[in-house]
Write a structure and sequence with these properties.
The complex is a heterodimer of chains A (about 375) and B (about 240). Chain A is an all-alpha fold and about 375 residues long. Chain A has a domain of about 250 residues. In chain A, strands 1-2 form a two-stranded antiparallel sheet. In chain A, strand 1 and strand 2 form a beta hairpin. The longest helix of chain A has about 35 residues. Chain A starts with 6 loop residues before the first helix and ends with a helix. Chain B is α/β, with parallel strands linked by helices and about 240 residues long. In chain B, the strands form two sheets. Chain B has a six-stranded mixed sheet, with helices on both faces. A four-stranded antiparallel sheet of chain B has the order 2-1-4-5, with helices on one face. Chain B is globular and about 50 Å long. Chain B has a domain of about 120 residues: P-loop containing nucleotide triphosphate hydrolases (Rossmann fold, 3-Layer(aba) Sandwich). Chain B has ten helices and ten strands. Chain B is about 40% helix and about 25% strand. Classes of the chains: A mainly alpha (about 375), B alpha/beta (about 240). The interface between A and B is large, with 35 and 56 residues. The structure holds adenosine-5'-triphosphate and magnesium ion.
């Protein structure tokens, strides 16, 4: 406590607002930097890779958007979410029901309620409406989840997943049950997916660095102290939950518009588990962690899958190792939890790591 | 400024507060002392909204805050530190202070304008560590950060729960000067809890002594120390 004290409170200044703007600008720059690795890989695939890889890239980008959405809630509130695929599914089925051509609907859902068998909306409008449904359902479920803490909230998120899944399965007039829903207009290509991914990453960064993100992270670390400093944690958790759901819903919309065919099992435990593994592996505290986890695990799993089906190395045919990818996924998560609970990328975003490295090298 | 009247609180059979009353004026440093378990922290919790009193009332500048939650008390201008440090450990030192300042900007923009985070950090010798996670600071720095964070709320009432605990003599000396400076510069009412009586005596013009949930004496520091009940509690404790 050095110099004489009249200095602390003396100078009237607008540092506060300036700092706020500076932060905004920093995360506007930080977002694209965070997205850079994904963009580079995406462009490389677009330019050089055979068609088979384009399809893998699609799955990877869908996962990327989901994992970034997951990070928005989990990373900032520190509450595990096991229900996000419900929103992915609602986004996908939303556009499927609203935008599939009438001729197709006559075959697939002729008895759809509310006259939906005779609705064929422009894909963009259908997407907006589907996301609106996601937002409403997220607001309702979020009201409950934001009141709970820790494990209780996680269990409610899981219940949400199970409810939504069984509605997809059993409301066959509207969703076709466990059969594939086909004929969705394929209006999205890989470049569009890439753009959407970058946009979502920037949004996640802006949220994390915003005052709400900061307050939410504070409340996750010490609920008592956060309350003592005027933070309304419930409201912030709700906010993050809805934003997270919208991003996941967008992933579903894009997936449906790319693949043209969807079915309920795509939006269930398999997806929950793999996206969760990606986020935890990469590090859920940062958006960079989300991106890192998706890249590492997508490449890793593809590699393992190629071994799984039996490869020939130097003329020797290795046996098929079915189930290897599942085992490997589990092992990766266990090892990661044991040795690096913060995930690969830890506490700092990519741009923050780079600027630190740069500063150190200058010195 | 602050007036607490006849506040009681029971925890499953343990009566932690019995009709405790106290008041603290703007620009005053009030010392709240008493043996372990006397109810000092509980009283501070009741004032800051962490606990809802069973009976009694808490008023800040004629605004009734009885039974209001901690968020509302913070917004009304009550800032506090915690006996067992509660920082936002994984946020940086600067972000810890920013969190408080955001709330201040919401409710008292003019006060917020007068607080310069860089200067505040520098003043509490936290500027070099501004970008490290708060949880990695040394104990003494964490205690200083608790105070800096509380000040960034631009409080009209500051509650310090054992700020000198674990500090050595020179450190608590500096801390006493810092608290004196806060009173001068921020012009807020300050309540300090501590077991270090030298620290308390040099800092506080007025004392409030608690024992077994009751306020047994309050008044000017020297007067309180002449009170036989206070002497009994303290002599009884040391012997
Ligand atoms: N949350 C709680 N639940 C149950 N009992 C409590 C709780 N908080 C405090 N008490 C009890 O209330 C009494 C007063 O505790 P308090 O922490 O207010 O004392 P204190 O004066 O701050 O003591 P110290 O100097 O040790 O900090 C003690 O008997 C304590 O055990
Ligand atoms: Mg105490």
């Amino acid at each position: 406590m050095s110099d004489s004290a009249e200095t602390i409170a003396a100078r009237p200044s607008s540092t506060a607002t300036r700092a706020g703007n500076g932060q905004f600008r920093r995360s506007l720059v930080g977002g694209p930097v965070t997205a850079l690795p994904a963009v580079v890989i995406g462009l490389a695939i677009l330019a050089f890779a055979p068609a088979y890889y384009t399809h893998l890239a699609l799955a990877a980008f869908v996962n990327l958007i989901i994992v970034v959405g997951l990070q928005v809630f989990m990373g900032n509130s520190n509450i595990a979410n096991l229900g996000h695929s419900a929103f992915v599914g609602i986004g996908a089925y939303g556009v499927a029901v609203l935008s599939t051509p009438l001729a197709m609907k006559k075959l697939s859902i002729p008895n759809a309620p509310f006259g939906l068998a005779f609705v064929e909306l422009n894909p963009f409008i259908a997407a907006v409406l589907a996301l609106l449904v996601v937002a409403v359902l997220a607001a309702i479920s979020g009201k409950i989840i934001s009141r709970l803490s820790g494990v209780a909230a996680t269990i409610v998120s899981l219940a949400l997943l199970i409810i939504v899944h069984s509605v997809f399965l059993n409301w066959t007039d509207l969703f076709k049950g466990n059969q594939a829903f086909f004929g969705i207009p394929k209006v999205i290509n890989l470049p569009a997916m890439l753009v959407a991914s970058v946009a979502v990453i920037v949004i996640a960064r802006l949220f994390k660095d915003s005052r709400w993100g900061l307050q939410l992270r504070a409340s996750a670390q010490s609920p008592q102290a956060a309350a003592a400093f005027g933070i309304d944690a419930k409201r912030l958790r709700l906010m993050a939950w809805v934003l997270s759901a919208l991003i996941c819903g967008l992933a579903g919309v894009l997936f449906a518009y790319f693949a043209g065919t969807i079915s309920p099992k795509l939006f269930y435990f398999q997806q929950i588990f793999i996206t969760l593994a990606m986020l935890i592996l990469g590090g859920m505290a940062t958006v960079t962690g989300a991106v890192t986890g998706v890249i590492v695990l997508s490449i890793g799993l593809e590699f393992i899958r190629s071994i799984e089906s039996g490869v020939t190395i130097a003329g020797i045919q290795l046996p098929q190792l079915l189930g290897l990818s599942g085992v490997a996924l589990g092992v990766v998560i266990v090892l990661c939890m044991a040795f690096r609970p913060g995930g690969i990328s830890g506490r700092l975003e990519l741009d923050e790591q780079l600027s630190r490295l740069f500063r150190r090298n200058v010195r | 400024m602050l007036s607490v009247e006849a506040v009681s609180k029971t925890f499953g059979g343990v009566q932690a507060l019995r009709q405790a009353s106290l008041s603290c004026a703007t620009g005053e440093i009030l010392g709240l002392i008493g043996p372990n378990g006397a109810g000092k922290s509980t009283l501070v919790n009741a004032i800051s909204g962490v606990l809802r009193p069973d009976t009694g009332s808490v008023k800040l500048a004629d605004r009734d805050l009885t039974g209001r939650g901690p968020e509302e008390c913070a917004r009304a201008g009550i800032a506090r530190t915690f006996q067992n440090i509660r920082l936002f450990k994984e946020l940086t030192v600067r972000q810890n202070v920013e969190v408080a300042h955001i709330t201040c900007r919401d409710v008292r923009p003019d006060a917020a304008d007068r607080i310069d985070i860089d200067r505040l950090l520098a003043h509490y010798e936290l500027d070099v560590a501004a970008d490290v996670p708060a949880g990695t600071l040394s104990y003494g720095s964490q205690r200083r950060l608790e105070i800096a964070r509380a000040l960034a709320l631009g409080p009209s009432l500051l509650l310090l729960d054992e700020p000198a605990a674990g500090l050595n003599e020179t450190e608590s000396e500096t801390l006493a000067e810092a608290i004196e400076a806060i009173r001068r510069d921020f012009g807020c009412a300050i309540i300090v809890i501590d077991h270090d009586l030298r620290f308390i005596n040099r800092l506080c013009g007025r004392l409030c002594v608690m024992d077994q949930g009751k306020v047994i004496a309050s008044g000017d520091t020297e007067e309180v120390w002449r009170d036989p009940r206070v002497i009994e509690v303290y002599v009884g404790q040391t012997s």
